[in-house]
User: What shape does this take?
Amino acid sequence: MTQEEKELLIDLSERLLFGVKIKIGEHSDYKLIGIVITDEHPIKVEVIENGIPYKIEVSPDIIKPYLRPISSMTDEEYKEYSKLWDLQDEFPTDADIRFKTDVFNWLNAHHFDFRGLIEKGLALEAPKGMYD
Assistant: This one.
């Protein structure tokens, strides 16, 4: 398993509680609800598709989560985010994200890509309204 695949799987495992949507191969109607991370191929994931949960084995290189770029943060979200950091004047950038659990949880809950996975080709930009 490559380092990038490991990075992606760690990110996905942190997003399990927040209903991250993923694309596996050419199919994109999955909500990830479980993952078994091993050094073996394929890995096992549990997903919900059309309201039905099931487990599948897939190669990690064909899994891509749908994430939101930090730049897509709305004004209301920025106000919530600011309260966590007590930010006053600056709009957050990827470099502004510090190691703080409540901030990570908030970012994961709002499906933001704070690790640059979209830029690395490991995630897809979520279409507007996907997580409304």
